[in-house]
Structures are given as structure tokens and as C-alpha cells.
Specification:
Blueprint: E1 6-10, E2 16-17, E3 33-37, H1 75-80, E4 90-95, H2 101-114, E5 119-123, H3 128-137, E6 146-149, H4 153-161, E7 168-172, H5 189-206, E8 209-215, H6 227-231, E9 234-240, E10 246-254, E11 262-268, E12 271-274, H7 278-282, E13 293-300, E14 303-315, E15 323-326, H8 330-344, E16 351-357, H9 369-381, E17 389-391, E18 394-395, E19 401-402, H10 407-416, E20 421-425, E21 440-444, H11 447-454
Parallel strand pairs: 4-8, 4-9, 5-6, 5-7, 7-8, 13-17, 15-16, 17-20, 20-21
Antiparallel strand pairs: 1-2, 1-3, 9-10, 10-11, 11-12, 13-14, 14-16, 18-19
Bound molecules: thymidine-5'-diphosphate and magnesium ion.
The site of thymidine-5'-diphosphate (TYD) has 15 residues, from α2 and α3.
Amino acid sequence: MAKAQKTFACSNCGAVYRRWQGKCEDCGDWNSIVEEAAAVSGAPKGLSAKKGRATQLVSLDTPIKEEPRTLTGIGEFDRALGGGLVPGSAILIGGDPGIGKSTLLLQAMGALSLRGEDCIYISGEEATAQVQMRAARLGLAGAPLKLGCETSLRDILTTLDEGKPPRAVVIDSIQTLFADHVESAPGTVSQVRVCGHELITYAKRRGTVVFLVGHVTKDGQIAGPRVLEHMVDTVLYFEGDRGHQFRILRAVKNRFGGTDEIGVFEMTGLGLQEVNNPSELFLADHNSREPGSAVFAGIEGSRPVLVEVQALVARSSAANPRRAVVGWDSGRLAMVLAVLDARAGLGLAGCDVYLNVAGGLKISEPAADLAVASALISSLAQVPVPEETVVFGEISLSGDVRGVSQTEARLKESAKLGFAKALMPSGKKSAKKSTIKGIEQQGLVRVTDLVAHFFPEGVA
Ligand code: TYD
Ligand code: MG
């Protein structure tokens, strides 16, 4: 037998090296390469030595036997998954420690088991009594969910292989598992890779849905193994601000659905509650009479969501005024500030600027440009945004207000929530105006049109 060779792997991205080095060439991370025991010693020299089995090939036009998706009964969870659970799929759920991953999965499995499905929850972090206590607090004490407390992959697979395959299995968390044929500590790249691979293979083999919980490192990656992200069918992130009670479940990869859907939850004393109308939640404390606040009519996935954008602009004597952003891209803010300065002469370069998206939501749509600009100009002018008004539109570097997608959905949601007016692009896209009742549409062509709302006598 060949001598076991030492290998080195990057604990961030999983790239493998023959010798140690300070920087991973794959992901550029420093000091992330660690030694691992090679899992396979004496690998076959060539594949021709032993003949494999021929794989059965099917034609694309063969009729498929489509298994229906299973709904968990937690609407927001099913929505983020793209419409329920697909049999045999492997789903990775990442998130900061303490954000509520275990709570979410316990509730989902509890709900699923109450619908008569066979579900197993395996915790490698908590004792069964702890999980039971939590379940009791969540009102799930009577759910026929099977609990296990185990970290050995071999024992877990043996347990799962007994009898009829369950509908769904939760492994909380993948970092606590260990495979006894791999010589490294739990949580290392090789352990996570082997355990992940085995569990995903199990999912495909038995048609069970496997949830893998993964902790996220400080810089926002699912600890170590980005390798897992490639292997699983779906990657969900559970995000939110610990200071806020809102939690957002976001799909970042989904082989069986869109990746732009979000599920919104609220963490309460009785666990996670679904939020069916996020706009109401994000606008709960909105005060339209204050300068520096604008309501953005955004789209998250297929759903319109109204959020409040707050800005504070203050003259500064510092050489480098402060710029602080929460919930939006700071590069995009710099761009909007530059356009407002260059095209409307607002002189924001000499101001401290603070921008905040209320409620802990992160916006990534360019359509928020105009809402951000409104909040900024409103704060600078000390004039509130007109009452009951929503704002949306993209701003180009030339200072034009550009059209955005799904105008109608944005307007409908705004009208539904009692807004009477929309400041929006007046491009061709929004040409079919009169279609939405109850909301006045005010089209803007250039950012200067927006500035004129707040500085009717011109910028001093
Ligand atoms: P948990 O699901 O253990 O987080 P994770 O598995 O992502 O590490 O969530 C723990 C947090 O949730 C904890 O700080 C308390 C809070 N929590 C509530 O506010 N209400 C509840 O009913 C439960 C069960 C937890
Ligand atoms: Mg947990």
C-alpha cells in the first residue's frame, strides 16, 4: 500500500495543495491553508485496471415521473425554497450563530411531522432534552418528530438506513459531524466535505430531503466549505440583525426554483412567526413628516416590498467627511452623491452622510437610487418628502432617471398600503399610466426634477 501522503487544503474554499503556503491562490485568502490527512491512500494508478459498470442513459424525451413537492405548511419557508421540498434534494442553511437556524428548522420539521410526514431532527450541538424544551416553548411538544443527538456520520447513516426512508432529515450542524475514516477534527474541510458528500448521496439514494445547517464565518462564508455550496441543490441564508426581530431567509442557489425569493420572519418569544405582508412591518414606525425619510417601493423576489430609507446629511469641516451606510451598497451611495453634486450642484461632498434602510433589510436593487436621493435631498433641504408618497427609479451617471421593471406591482402595493402618490421614472416603460387606480404618478426625467421638489427656488 502506498504511503499516506500529506495534503494541505484551504479552509476557506477547499482548494488542495501539495505543500503549505501562506496564501491560497484560489480564493486569495491568507493563512487559511491547513494540513489534512489524505482520505484516500494508494489510489488506483489508472482507471483501466478494473472495468466499471455501464451507466444507464436515458433520452431527454423520456416521460418523467415527477414527484410532487411537499409543503411544510410554513408559507415563507416554502416560498424561499421555491415552492416546497423536492424529494431527494440537499439543502444547506447558513447563517450567523444565534440567528435562529435551529429554531426555524425545528418549527419546519415540527409542522411537517404534524402533517403526517416522517421527519428526523439530528442535533450534534444540543442534547435531546434541550431540543425538547425548545420544542415545548414553540408549541410543538405534541409533534411526532423524531429527535436524535449524534455526531458520528456512520451511526447517523445506519440510523437513517433503517426501515422506510424518512421524508426529511435535519443535520444540525454539519460542522459537528465526524466521519471515523477521516483523520481530522470535526469542522475541518475534509470532514465537512466527506460528511456532506455522504449525506447528499443518501438524499439522492433514498429520496429524502436533507437539510444541512452550516455556520457562517465572520466574513460571511459558510464556514470552511464553500465546497458544500457546489454539492448541494439549494443554499439558503438566514440573515438578519440581532438587534432587530426580523429575519430573512434568502435563497442564493436553487436548482429547483428562483434564487430571488425571500421568506420574512419575526423572532418572537414563541419562536419565528411568518410575516405575510413585509411592507407593513418595515413601515411600522414610519413618520412621513420628518425630513430625511423616503419610502422606497422595491421588489424582493416576486413580491413588492415597501421600505423606509433614512438619511442624515450634515455639513462637515473634516477633510474627509464621514459616509456610513446600513442596508445598501456604499459604492452605490457614492455614485448617487456624485451625480447629485455634479448634475444638481448640491454640494454634498462637504457633508457627513449617514444612510439607513429601516428594519434591517438589505436592498440591492438599483431602483432604490431615486428613493436614496430623495432621502438625502430631503435631509439637506430640511423639507420632508411629500406625504403619502413612494419613490422608485434608477439614476444614471448623466443624471437621467431611468425606468425600472415591475412598475405596476410597485404601484399596486403602494396603493394597497394607502400611498397616494409615486415619484417615479417617466420613461416609456411606465407609459401605460392610468392602469392603477388610487395613486397619482408623477414622472421624473432628470434628478434635477427631484431636486426642484425640495428646493423650489433653486439650490442656494
Ligand atoms: P437558534 O435557533 O438557537 O440559533 P442558531 O441555531 O442559528 O444558532 O436561535 C437562538 C436565538 O433565538 C436565541 O438568541 C434566542 C432566540 N429565540 C427567541 O427569541 N424565541 C424563541 O422562541 C426561541 C426558540 C429562540
Ligand atoms: Mg443552532
